[in-house]
C-alpha cells in the first residue's frame, strides 16, 4: 500500500534498504552523471507519454520558467483518458549500461493528495524487447518529494511481462539498449496537477581492477661447459711435449753411440 507524504520534505528511498543489501552493494567513490535535466532553460525535450487502450500517445508538457532565482520545472494537469508518465529525452537513452548499480534521482509533487491511485509501475525502463518496472514506496506530496532509485535487481525491479524479480542480465540488457525511461505522473483518481524537477541519472560504481601480479620467472639453470684451456696454455703444452720428445731422442742417440764404442 502506498503511503502519502504531505508538506515539504525530502525522503530517500535508499534509507529503506535492508541492511544486508546495503552492505553487500558497492559504494561508488564519486558518481558520474550520465544525464540530467534541471529545466532551468526549458523542457529539454521531455514529453508526456499517455497509455490508453494499449497505445502510447505523446504530448508536450507545460513548462514553468525560472522565476526570482527559483529553478524551472515541468507540470501537467491530470489526463482522464489513461495513465500518463514523464517521458525522458534522448540524452537519457541509448547504451546506459554504465548506470547499472547507479541511482536515478528526481523530485515530484502533486496538487492534491486525496483519492490516491494504487499504482504499481511508477518507473518504466524499456529496451532490448523488455520492460522493467519499479513501484515506489510512497506517492509524492504537495511539496517537492525526493526520490533516489537504485538501478539494481536487488532493489525491487520487476519484469513487467512476467511479474518476476528482474535479474542482473535483464537489468543490463535493458540499460545497454535503453529506448524509454518513464516516470509516473498520475497518482490521483480525478483531476490533479503533477510536477517534476531535477532528474539525474548517475553511473554505477566502477569496480576497482584487481592488479595483475607480475609473473615470477625462474630461469632453468644451464650447466656450465667444461673449462677450455686458454690458447696460450695449449701452446705451452705443445712446446713442452715437443721439448720432452727432443730430450728423449738425444738420450736414445747417446745410448746407441756408447754401446757402439764399447
UniProtKB/TrEMBL annotation:
Keyword Disulfide bond attached: yes
Domain of life of the organism encoding this protein: Bacteria
UniProtKB keywords: Disulfide bond, Glycoprotein, Repeat, Signal
Segments passing through the bilayer: none
SMART domains from the UniProt entry: LamB
Coiled-coil region(s): none
Domain Laminin IV type A: 41-230
Record-linked Pfam families: Laminin_B
Protein name, entry field: Laminin IV type A domain-containing protein
Amino acid at each position: 500500500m502506498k503511503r502519502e507524504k504531505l508538506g515539504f520534505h525530502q525522503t530517500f528511498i535508499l534509507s529503506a534498504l535492508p541492511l544486508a543489501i546495503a552492505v553487500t552493494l558497492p559504494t561508488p567513490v564519486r558518481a558520474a552523471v550520465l544525464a540530467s535535466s534541471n529545466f532551468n532553460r526549458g523542457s529539454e525535450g521531455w514529453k508526456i507519454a499517455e497509455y490508453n487502450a494499449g497505445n502510447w500517445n505523446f504530448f508536450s508538457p507545460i513548462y514553468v520558467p525560472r522565476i526570482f532565482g527559483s529553478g524551472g520545472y515541468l507540470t501537467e494537469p491530470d489526463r482522464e483518458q489513461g495513465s500518463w508518465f514523464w517521458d525522458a529525452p534522448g540524452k537519457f537513452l541509448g547504451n546506459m549500461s554504465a548506470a547499472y548499480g547507479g541511482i536515478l534521482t528526481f523530485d515530484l509533487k502533486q496538487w492534491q493528495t486525496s483519492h490516491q491511485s494504487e499504482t504499481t509501475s511508477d518507473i518504466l525502463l524499456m529496451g532490448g524487447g523488455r520492460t522493467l518496472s519499479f513501484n515506489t514506496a510512497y506517492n509524492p506530496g504537495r511539496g517537492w518529494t525526493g526520490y533516489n532509485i537504485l538501478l539494481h535487481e536487488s532493489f525491487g525491479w520487476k519484469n513487467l511481462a512476467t511479474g518476476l524479480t528482474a535479474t542482473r542480465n535483464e537489468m543490463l540488457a535493458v540499460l545497454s539498449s535503453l529506448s524509454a525511461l518513464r516516470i509516473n505522473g498520475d497518482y490521483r483518481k480525478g483531476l490533479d496537477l503533477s510536477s517534476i524537477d531535477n532528474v539525474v541519472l548517475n553511473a554505477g560504481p566502477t569496480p576497482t581492477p584487481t592488479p595483475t601480479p607480475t609473473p615470477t620467472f625462474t630461469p632453468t639453470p644451464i650447466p656450465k661447459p667444461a673449462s677450455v684451456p686458454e690458447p696460450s696454455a695449449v701452446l705451452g703444452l705443445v712446446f713442452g711435449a715437443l721439448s720432452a720428445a727432443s730430450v728423449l731422442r738425444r738420450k736414445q742417440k747417446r745410448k746407441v753411440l756408447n754401446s757402439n764404442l764399447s
